[in-house]
Amino acid sequence: MSAVLKNFSLGALLSRLALLMIVVAWTIPTLGLFVSSLRDRDLLSTTGWWTAFQTNLRFEQARTNAADVQTESDGVYTITGNALEVTNDDGEVTLNPTKSIRSFGGGFLPASGTETYAGNEQPGIRDYAPGTTVTLENGETFTLNADGTYTYTSPVPFDMERGRRFFVVTNNPPSFSLRNYQDVLSAEGVADSFINTFTVTIPATIIPIAVAAFAAYAFSWMEFPGRRWMFYVVVALIVVPLQMSLIPLLRIYNEIGIAKTYPGIWLAHTGFGLPMAIYLLRNYIGGLPREIIESAKIDGASHFQIFMRLVLPLSVPALASFAIFQFLWVWNDLLVALVFLGKDAEQIVLTSKLRELLGSRAENWEILTASAFVSIIVPLVVFFSLQRYFVRGLLAGSVKGG
Amino acid sequence: MDRVINAFLGIVIGVGAMLLYYFGTNWVIDRVLADKIGPDGAIVGKRGELRERIRPWLFIAPAVFLLVLFLVYPAVQTVYLGFFNARGTEFVGLANYEWAFNDPGFQLAIRNNLLWLIVVPLFSTALGLIIAVLADRVRWGQFAKSLVFMPMAISFVGASVIWKFMYDFRGPDQPQIGVLNALVVSLGGEPQAWLTLPLVNNLFLMVILIWIQTGFAMVLLSAALRGVPDETLEAARIDGANEVQIFFQVMIPQIMGTIVVVWTTITIVVLKIFDIVLAMTNGQWQTEVLANIMYDWMFRGGGDYGRSGVIATIIMIAVIPIMVWNIRRFRQEEMER
Asked: Is residue A273 in a domain?
């Protein structure tokens, strides 16, 4: 008995451990994306995102100011500045206050030898601790403090046009910001794409629901010739690959001039989503109790009235299930958008934009991670808040059908 | 701001036009074919019957129109265009099929699609089943399932960015920022540019789809497992079967129907796989798949509708068995109803 019990608890422990490992493996990729999108660009490209919560060391190049900012007092010429200041492409100067100098050396400073850092041979980057004053052979002195401020003095006037180069190892404590998001939303045009995606998604969700609900009601409760085989066609169409429709539709669209227009893509998504929508909604509407419909008929209600006042309100759960499906499908679609929409700022959707960035900014992970997160945040919110409906739709759509 | 207003206006007009149709047409037939009331207060004539015979068609007309325009007609037309030249102007017989089967790119795509068809449904279904079984036994199972299910909400392109970052490669003397290479290096291996290694790079692309589809399989199989009657499990336990035997000999046979449904549903997704390949490699390093070739030929050199159409048709042919099976199953269900 005790052996059985022991076996059982060991098995339970192992299965818990296995589940935990699977869940961790499933979550890590998305977590990595999210953490990275909040990190500083330079750190992101040189250190793993899992080190984001510790202080990272980084090897950096720095430069003193040039001769034009020197001041003179008592025959000593002085240049001051901050080695940690960063000037971006727009000439804007920023200083990350959490950063500090760990050691410095190399460049114009006398070096004791070479060190290997980040795979590269660097002369003397660990020679001097912050606060040290280095005296050069020509009488110049250079002092660099931990906060990045430096004082560079010379007995004779400076005359260099570019500042002198040296190297630093910096301490980079964990620092997170929304900078990358600001960048992608404004400069990269991701905000435009966000609006475009919404413009595509909302009508492309509402229209098929309405069209399918009317059809599903007719297939369930109205008599007309061909009802049965027409529904078989709908069931067959559920699995027809999108690829079968693209070429002829593109030709038609070009001919009647709705290629690269929003109504064009709304209609396309409506058409592609309809078979599943009709199928799902008919399952539900056809399952409503016959007595309700019959008694309304006896009271003199027309089918239109029964549908609007009775069936539609009763079908809200099914409508919601399909709405979530279609919303996610349209939001996440790339192929239909590539074929039927343009790629200018007015029309490019998030998925298409993201794909473009994957090509043009392949090495800029700060751009890619932030853009990707912008594109997945809305589906994730919809998904987590309405998961119950989504699961119900999946079960209704798949266990019984295609 | 203008753009938001335009978008909003577009939405209102689009949705409004559709509602106008349904309300409008129903209002019209209710008016035009209103019951004629005789002097004695009874309904005269057969207007009501005619009205109710027309109404179903008003209900299904938009759906039928859209289905024919967007799916039925294009499907027929695509097969037809497969027998014509690039611009669809000249009949070329089977020349496009001949081109396809002799094209090394196409052969490669067929090989890769077959690989995808075996690997992705197999791993998604198996992992989904394992997670469903494990999660049903612990208190935090629901939470665990939510996290595994989450990738279902993420677009294929979004998932591609996520995984491209996982696979990121830096030179061997630099610190790795991709999780996979960091792991390999920490275990003493050499970092690799995974996406450029022929054959195995296909597996790295498939991982993305498995990551997305496992949640789907898990949800369906979890529901099916809950439908397995406890008595059958109890009976097996009393007969002395262990958990593994119960799993394979009692549970699996009872949920076989759902396993098949999950498998075929994922198969259809796999047959159409496009976004992941386009975003990750665009078919380079021997990762080409059919849907990507099809898209490529649709626009290459102004578009070759014949070749593109042939590839679409081949994807369609692969789907037909599933389609037939679906209809048969549906008919059976209708009979039982």
From this structure: yes
Answer yes or no: are the C-beta atoms of B310 and B105 closer than 8 Å.
no
Size of interface A-B (CB pairs under 8 A): 341
User: Given pLDDT bands bounded at 50, 70 and 90, which one contains residue A3?
Assistant: very low
Q: How many residues does chain B have?
A: 337
Q: Nearest to residue A311, comparing CAs of A294, A293, A329?
A: A293
A2 confidence band (pLDDT: 50, 70, 90): very low
Query: Does A130 reside within a domain?
Result: yes
What is the number of structural domains in chain A?
A: 2
| H or E element at residue A117 | strand A114-117
Does one domain contain both A246 and A162? no
**Quick one: pLDDT band at residue A400, thresholds 50, 70, 90?**
very low
Q: Is residue A106 part of a domain?
A: yes
Q: Do B165 and A33 touch (CB under 8 A)?
A: yes
Give the domain extent around A61: 56-173
**Closest residue by Cα to residue A309 from A300, A301, A320, A317:** A301
Is there a contact between B81 and A334 if contact means CB atoms under 8 Å apart? no
DSSP state, residue A128: B
Amino acid, single-letter form, for residue B250:
V
H/E stretch holding B326: helix B305-336
- Tell me the chain B residues in contact with residue A249 when contact means C-beta distances shorter than 8 Å: 70, 74
- pLDDT at residue number B1: 61
Cβ-based contacts of B74 with chain A (< 8 Å): 244-249
Q: Provide the edge-to-edge strand list for the sheet that holds A100-105.
A: A56-63, A165-172, A100-105
Chain mean position to CA A168:
33
| Chain B contacts in chain A segment 266-285 (CB below 8 A) | 266-268, 270-272, 274-275, 278
C-alpha closest to that of A124 among A74, A169, A79: A169
Q: What are phi and psi of A105, to 5 degrees?
A: 160, -175
pLDDT given at position B126: 96
CB contact under 8 A, A118 and B174: yes
Kindly give the parts of chain B with pLDDT less than 70. 1, 3, 337
Q: Please check the confidence at residue A1 and state whether its pLDDT lies above 50.
A: no
Cβ separation A303–B333 shorter than 8 A: no
Whether the predicted pLDDT of A401 surpasses 70 = no
Would you say residue A7 has pLDDT above 70?
A: no
Tens of pLDDT, residue by residue over B47-85, are 888 888 899 999 999 999 999 999 999 999 999 999 999
Kindly state the average pLDDT of the residues A303-324: 92
Evaluated on CA atoms B280, B282, B288, B291, the torsion sign reads: positive
**Cα distance between residue B176 and residue B158, in whole Å:** 22
Q: Which residue has the tokens 């250079």?
A: A142
A214 shares a domain with A161? no
Report chain A residues whose CB lies below 8 A from the CB of B146. Answer: 384, 387
Cβ atoms within 10 Å of A363's Cβ, excluding its own: 8
Reported ipTM: the value is 0.92
Distance of residue A203 Cα from the nearest chain B Cα, in angstroms: 6
Chain A residues in contact with B175 by the CB 8 A cut-off are 46-48, 118
